[in-house]
Amino acid sequence: MARIRECNTAGQRKGMASTACFIIVSRNDIPIYEAEVGSALKKEEAAHQHQFILHAALDIVQDLAWTTSAMFLKTVDKFNDLVVSVYVTAVKKIYGHIHCCFIVFILLFSLTNHIIHTRLMLLHDSRNEDGIKSFFQEVHELYIKILLNPLYLPGSRITSSHFDTKVRALARKYL
User: How far apart are CA 86 and CA 74, in angstroms?
Assistant: First the structure.
């Protein structure tokens, strides 16, 4: 057993956050994706505490979104040595029409945050803002690809193992 732990800690990227919990929250405040992406071994109690801290930060995110047009809100809340960072997606509306035998989609989007849609939230103990911002931006791109899937119902849980693998790889790369 000690041998397995040695392999796990030795193979990790130097400087990776030991505690990191990532969650995607829909516009209805429902978690649609959750992952413990830190290097520390997790207990069930800690996972519930992380969810509670992130859920408690939703009100702060709601208030901050009205005061800024930035998508990356950096540090929005702190609990002991843990920090909550948030990335708020822009409001997007997709309109389309059918013309002859093909579909034409026109994408209109607004960068105002008066209506908050999806929030990417990270609870972490690291101080790497640039890495966290890059992590959020790349996960946001992955999330957009999920939204473009015609079989995915927006607001439902993301169960794709491919998405999960990519998110965890990005966490190892940036956090």
Answer: 6
